[in-house]
Amino acid sequence: MAYKSLLTLAAAPDRLGPAVNAAGVLARKFDAHLDALALGVDRTQVGYSYVGSGAVVLQVALERAEEDARKAEAALKAALDGQGADLRWALDSAVTQIGALTDLVATRARYADLVVLPKPYADTAGPEDEAIIEAAMFEGMAPVLVVPEKGPEITGNFKHVVLAWNQSREAMVAAKQALPFLKAAERVTITVIDPPTHGPERSDPGGLLCQFLVRHGVKAEVAVLARTLPRISDVLARQCTDTNADLLVMGAYGHSRFREAILGGATRNMLEAAELPVFMAH
Fold first, then answer.
1. Class of domain 160-281 (CATH, top level)
2. Per-residue pLDDT tens for 12-40?
3. Is CATH 3.40.50.12370 the right assignment for the domain spanning 5-147?
4. Which of 53, 77, 146, 262 is least buried, going by the fewest C-beta atoms within 10 A?
């Protein structure tokens, strides 16, 4: 498996820097093509209006979204132009209402091997940032690399990767989708937190996954940790800090709200606290 089609999206020109730079670096590393999409999002949800005012409100919101898309497109073009002539990329822009954002992002993400996005929880983040990540993973079925605004610069080589493992389908999907990163790493630590005493891997937590990865050439080892902090995300964050990891790989968990899948508590908590890139898949 290799990443040959990468995708990044920008809805705010002042937040795209680290994610777009990381996407360009990874595209060159994997000899991949990078698609970039500038978004203008109409965030209005008009529930009622006075007679004659609805059309004015909608027109103003649409014009604002179109202006946002133009600014994001200009910022994306400047960032991509600055990454060198050896980067293969294409740029597009679109305007959408917040309610239609999922379908737009999912359609693009389905044809990408990896989606690179900024961290959705920040002072300057909007409601569309989390919606974009959810759409890419749950509806677009693509793995997502989330890049924090103030994290280590991504060079394309993650030396130490922490892989969160709980025997779930989501964790297995994430491990397989992250194989290009895992195979290139100098060290991969499969981290198991409070494994069940009566589970199928009770005698050797993480052992079968370690064997699977080693057969792919991954330099993997297993660490079994006790849950000494209130949240699983806190234990994972401390493990990443203590071992000087530069990438966390984990399954993304969510639950259904009508037909929209939203990030579950553990996934949200991890992204909120993340100070290093997080690779997630569902």
1. alpha beta
2. 877 788 899 999 999 999 999 999 999 99
3. yes
4. 53
**Residue listed under structure tokens 């994001």:** 72
C-alpha 162/C-alpha 242 separation (Å) is 11
Q: The tokens of 19 are what?
A: 């994610």
| Domain spans of the chain, in order of start | 5-147, 160-281
Helix (H) or strand (E) holding 263: strand 260-263
Distinct helix (H) and strand (E) counts, the chain: 9, 12
Using a CB cutoff of 8 Å and minimum separation of 24, what contacts does 69-75 make? 69/38, 69/39, 69/40, 69/93, 69/94, 69/95, 70/38, 70/40, 71/13, 72/10, 72/11, 72/12, 72/13, 72/16, 72/38, 72/39, 72/40, 73/38, 74/13, 75/10, 75/13, 75/14, 75/16, 75/38
What pTM was estimated for this model as a whole?
A: 0.90
What helix, strand, coil percent values describe the chain, rounded to 5?
40, 25, 35
Report pLDDT digits (tens) over 227-264.
998 888 899 999 999 999 999 999 988 655 444 555 66
